[in-house]
User: What shape does this take?
Amino acid sequence: MHIKRLVVIGCLLCVSALVVSAAEFYTPPVISVPQVETAPVIDGQMEADEWQAAAVFSDFIILGGTARPTLPTTVYAAYDDSAVYIAVQLFDPDPEQLRAEADQRDGQVWQDDCLELFIDTAGQRRSYAHLAVNSRGTQYDALDLDESEDFRWEVATSTGDSSWTAELALPFANQIAPKPGDTWILNITRNATGVGELSSWAQVKEGFHEPENFGTLIFGGRPFQVTIDDLGALWLGENTAWISVSPLRGAIPPSPPEQPPEYFIKLNVRVMGRDERGHYFDSIKETVAGGTTQIAVPYSVKQDGLSTVTFSLTDHEGVVRWRSAPYPVAVPPVSAALKHAEAAIGDALVAWAQLPAGPDKQAYDKQLADLLTAWGYLDKRYQKREQMTASELEGLLAQVELINQQAQLTRQQMTPGQD
Assistant: This one.
């Protein structure tokens, strides 16, 4: 065995210290809701003209934040002087098979296909109202986990061919509407029993009862209807998302009659990778007026493993008016596997260096040389990862893991009784 092989492995094992990763960094989503003059009819039908002036929540993510749900959920919200109004369309390919066993108030609605809301009007992120409804309209409410608490709220549901819907009215305490700029802490979640999915607007890690991770609802101010039309490939390399922005009531400041009203915004994108080498941030400055403006938002995913992509909108004052959940980009973690494999080969080389000269050492020399060659070949292939598909990267990962296992087995054979 040549000394230079030991030197190469020693250099390969030198890596920089990691910083905040995608799994650790999280800023909760934000939604700004408009004040409307005419309240929607709460009948579960979701008429388009009733909700066209409402704000649209960003897409949900799976509990734990590692994937996007297979069944999408669309949420709209607005308010008037009396209540907050929320409409939700919960897509399902077979609504006739929805589980809706709870038929009494405060029954076990959360075990059905259901919609849940968690609302903290005090903004302390400690105590919250918990509301839930299934597709048959059965209501559940509690204060934190205390089911004896009942709240005043209205809900109606209906079932269609490919979804079920819920419309809710949440009256303000003492019929006093929040002032523009006031906030609630909020999360909206879904249990889809048919596919075993728990999904959420905000990123919650282990369960829905995590107020520290809930999002923020801003009343009035300068709301925009922001819709992510296309998230892009959500893959390694260069991506482009397409986001539509429409000013809602109160969003555009007064302007002289001879000038068309317009508003300056920034659409921001942040990618969080495993470490700072995988982070990315950019802003797109735009001027929006009446109607809908579709904006291209480029972003770059630089690392495999788990990264997240978050979009936000800030106004000309730098105030965040809308922020999405962190959408996961899950790429087979070949980089980490390569590091584990090189470490296993390094351990085997150390064990080989301590063997006495003889035929066994020569035999292991050949085995380790073959492992080094195979590792170098796979590492070279990995350098072209941005051109590889998910299945190709999964195959590469399996090959790297096999080398890791072979290196560990070789070291064990050279050091019997030491493990």
